[in-house]
Design brief:
By secondary structure, this protein is of the alpha/beta class. The chain has a single domain (15-150, 187-218), classed as Vaccinia Virus protein VP39 (Rossmann fold, 3-Layer(aba) Sandwich). The protein is built from eight helices and seven strands; from the N terminus they run ααβαβαββαβαααββ. A seven-stranded mixed β-sheet has the order 3-2-1-4-5-7-6, sandwiched between helices. Helix 2 packs across helix 3 and helix 6 (154-162) packs antiparallel against helix 7 (168-185). The radius of gyration is 16 Å and the shape is globular. The two termini are 25 Å apart. The mean pLDDT is 91.
Length: 219
């Protein structure tokens, strides 16, 4: 449904910006593989898994490699095209669509598990996005939000970036992005609990990580 509100905060992840993001996140493949293994262990082999905002598609690809039926929706056409190419290169099938997290192009109660990693803070309508996730999830299904915490320290972010193994310029650019935009967009645990309630969810289970959190929501 058309709406006046832009679907994301800040600049769009298109073109060269999206290609830079793909290059930097490709180094996180071991993390994506580990997360895919954790998710696959929680769902039936025949489960339909939705990734909201998959970016270049690395997590979705690792989920599909485990035999899961994976759907993915991203607002960025560049990312959807990248994810399609990356999936084809690794000989896996994904169902990818361009779409807004606040108006998911899926039917009610059509997926078993939802994951949204490192993107929720960028949604311009986060409560509506949470409500949409709940709408498309089957009863008893789970949604997993993974993102950074608003109260993260600069020292913790620097330690995280330094551990990624990038060159000095990429590390500097990443630190700049964290300082100038990402921390400001991030949410506290109380924010997540409040928005979940407003979107119709019960109390989420929130676990903290060195720079972020995992929020588990069960329908």
């Amino acid at each position: 449904m058309p709406h006046a509100t832009k679907a994301y905060k800040g600049f769009g992840m298109e073109g060269g910006v999206a290609r830079w993001y793909e290059k930097t996140t490709r180094r996180d493949r071991p993390e994506f593989a580990a997360l895919a293994a954790r998710i696959a262990a929680r769902v039936p082999a025949s489960a339909i898994v939705l990734e909201v905002a998959p970016g270049p598609g690395f997590l979705a690809i690792d989920l599909a490699k485990r035999g899961l039926d994976v759907r993915a929706v991203d607002i960025s056409r560049t990312f959807v095209e990248m994810a399609q190419r990356n999936a084809a290169a690794e000989n896996v099938k994904l169902r990818l669509e361009v779409g807004d997290a606040a108006a998911l192009p899926l039917a009610d109660k059509s997926v078993d598990f939802i994951v949204c990693r490192a993107a929720f803070k960028n949604f311009s309508r986060p409560i509506q996005a949470l409500a949409e996730m709940r709408r498309v999830l089957r009863p008893g299904g789970t949604a997993l939000l993974i993102d950074m915490r608003r109260d993260v320290s600069i020292a913790a972010i620097k330690h995280y970036i330094d551990g990624l193994g990038h060159g000095w310029l990429t590390r500097w650019l990443m630190m700049l992005v964290f300082r100038t935009s990402l921390i400001k967009r991030a949410y506290t645990q109380d924010d997540i609990r409040r928005m979940a309630r407003e979107a119709g969810w019960g109390e989420p289970r929130i676990e903290t990580t060195p720079i972020g959190f995992e929020a588990w929501l069960v329908k």
